[in-house]
């Protein structure tokens, strides 16, 4: 790399550090713990996210349930809402830039393309990942008279991610990239694959409101979070580990097991009336009758491959009984 390119990388990295420090503390955004600079390197220290990228998790699972997708997308949209409240546009939202911690909670990372807008500022730079680019970004690069784009591009990317998590594949894809870009600009996608047969109309409606070609009518992060896909379900609170509570649950579980075992093993009083009325309903007597019957009649009972002991005590079919009556007459 030339000296000029190295300087550009340094400026870009320092700008990313500045943005990361601005958003530090949000539960769904990666935390920059510290940063160090040497003569040749800049080191960034982040939260440890043991489970890696959402992309790898999706590759392993292929598709996610609506419940799991709801949890992921709620956290992602909350992060986007927070960024937009600070006039920050991420511009590179995709599963590869979403990390998972040990509990499966997500954190948004990679702010290399992010920028903080000034009041009234519009962007024109072509950047991001092709499959997640909003139509206005593509038009901006083709039309010099285009007014530019803003925070709405992040919501388009959220729609692509939501579609991908549920279907296992992105809504806009073609082996020829030019055709794929045309699909994006026209907003052409379908819910025709078998993966969508069991998906709710609610989540399809949310996707259709995010993947809108006109950015002026596209949902904002706040509006998306107010959609019925999220509103019908209360936000699950994060569970914190409590040794006292866990021990109490363990004790209650053990006592319940002891109680059930004692009740199961306890001998119930047997009266003459019960024994005379229905002896076969008593487990011990039933086992005794079965054992005696097989000891006496076992020599003539056919032991075929499909036969079992229970067949001897099954009720005889009515057609067989009718045949026996005809034979007796």
UniProtKB/TrEMBL annotation:
Keyword Disulfide bond listed: no
Reaction(s) catalysed by this chain's protein: 2 ATP + phosphorylase b = 2 ADP + phosphorylase a
Every Protein kinase domain range: 1-230
A single BP term in Gene Ontology: glycogen metabolic process
Keyword hit for Transcription regulation: no
Residue runs in coiled coils: none
Domain of life: Eukaryota
InterPro entries assigned: Kinase-like_dom_sf, Phosph_kin_gamma, Prot_kinase_dom, Ser/Thr_kinase_AS
Keywords, sorted A to Z: Carbohydrate metabolism, Glycogen metabolism, Kinase, Serine/threonine-protein kinase, Transferase
Cellular-component GO terms for this entry: phosphorylase kinase complex
UniProt-recorded Gene Ontology molecular function terms: ATP binding; calmodulin binding; phosphorylase kinase activity
The protein's Enzyme Commission number: 2.7.11.19
Similarity comment: family membership: Belongs to the protein kinase superfamily. CAMK Ser/Thr protein kinase family.
Record text on subunit structure and interactions: Hexadecamer of 4 heterotetramers, each composed of alpha, beta, gamma, and delta subunits. Alpha (PHKA1 or PHKA2) and beta (PHKB) are regulatory subunits, gamma (PHKG1 or PHKG2) is the catalytic subunit, and delta is calmodulin.
Protein name in UniProt: phosphorylase kinase
């Amino acid at each position: 790399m030339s000296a000029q390119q190295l300087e550009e990388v340094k400026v870009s990295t320092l700008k990313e550090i500045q943005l990361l420090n601005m958003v530090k503390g949000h539960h769904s955004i990666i935390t920059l713990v510290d940063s160090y600079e040497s003569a040749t390197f800049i080191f960034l220290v982040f939260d440890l996210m043991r489970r890696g990228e959402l992309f790898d998790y999706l590759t392993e699972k292929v598709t996610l349930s609506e419940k799991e997708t709801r949890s992921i997308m709620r956290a992602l949209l909350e992060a986007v809402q927070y960024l937009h409240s600070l006039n920050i546009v991420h511009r590179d939202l995709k599963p590869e830039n979403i990390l998972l911690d040990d509990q499966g909670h997500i954190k948004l990372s990679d702010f290399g393309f992010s920028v903080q807008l000034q009041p009234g500022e519009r962007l024109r730079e072509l950047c991001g990942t092709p499959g997640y680019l909003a139509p206005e970004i593509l038009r901006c690069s083709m039309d010099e008279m285009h007014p530019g784009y803003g925070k709405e591009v992040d919501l388009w990317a959220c729609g692509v991610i939501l579609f991908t998590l549920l279907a296992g594949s992105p809504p806009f894809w073609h082996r020829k990239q030019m055709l794929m870009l045309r699909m994006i600009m026209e907003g052409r996608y379908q819910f025709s694959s078998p993966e969508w047969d069991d998906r709710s109309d609610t989540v399809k409606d949310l996707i259709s409101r995010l993947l809108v070609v006109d950015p002026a009518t596209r949902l904002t992060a706040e509006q998306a979070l107010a959609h019925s896909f999220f509103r019908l379900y209360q936000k699950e609170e994060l569970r914190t580990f409590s040794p006292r509570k866990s021990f109490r649950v363990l004790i209650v579980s053990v006592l319940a097991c002891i109680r059930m075992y004692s009740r199961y093993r306890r001998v119930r009083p047997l009266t003459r009336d019960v024994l005379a009325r229905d002896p076969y309903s008593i487990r011990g007597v039933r086992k005794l009758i079965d054992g005696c019957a097989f000891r006496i009649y076992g020599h003539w009972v056919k032991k075929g491959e499909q036969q079992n002991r229970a067949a001897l005590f099954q009720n005889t079919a009515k057609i067989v009984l009718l045949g026996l009556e005809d034979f007796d007459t």
